[in-house]
Amino acid sequence: MYKLLIFDWDGTVIDSTARIVSSMQAAARDLSLPSLEDHEAREIIGLGLPEAIRQLFPGINDDMIEPMRERYAYYYLEGDNTPTALFAGVQVTLEALRDRGYRLAVATGKSRKGLDRVLAQTGLGSLFEITRCADETTSKPDPHMLHEILAETGVAAEHALMVGDTEFDMEMAQRANVGRIAVSYGAHHIDRLGKYDPVLEVHAFAEIARWLETVQGVCE
């Protein structure tokens, strides 16, 4: 029986893909780095920011990582007065899952500062028992983030599910022996996620709760 549901954030809970892409492109322009196509910037969504920058710009000097991070944060936060929208059905679905007895967690490539900000903006913070961010542990797809969540909650891997929109989410969960739910509306095409043998592929967030009710009812 599944007891713990672990959610990625960007591209899974909030519709932030376009904002991440445009912010990364603008930051690269400011620093005279090679221009980025949309599809290139989408590829790194889900990684911690230093890892994402290194993947986008192989061979980049270490002393350019922090300026790139700062410029990216500047552009991403310019839109702070208009918070990125939740995907349809997210809040009601998360509340329903909690009320059915599921324990909820977040495993994200965002920074701790960034996640805390958006949890406050959305009002979802109280729904999650535990959250882990890339700047306080190892970035996806390394499974260490999930190992920490499982250890802190005391839940065995076979009783947990990871919900995500990228190959990084799926690979991390597979390496941690955690079940996987792939969402089709995020950064990576659903066909790429399918090779990690998810137990479910969904096209809308609310489908997660309906499927869980069908396969096991209320969590005890």
From TrEMBL:
GO annotations of cellular component type: cytosol
Keyword Metal-binding included in the entry's annotation: no
Pfam families to which the protein is assigned, alphabetical: HAD_2
Presence of keyword Hydrolase: yes
Domain of life: Bacteria
GO-annotated molecular function: phosphoglycolate phosphatase activity
InterPro entries: HAD-like_hydrolase_sf, HAD-like_sf, HAD-SF_hydro_IA, HAD_2, HAD_sf, PGP-like_dom2
SUPFAM superfamilies per record: HAD-like
Keywords carried by this UniProt record: Hydrolase
Transmembrane segments: none
GO BP: DNA repair
Protein name, UniProt field: HAD family hydrolase
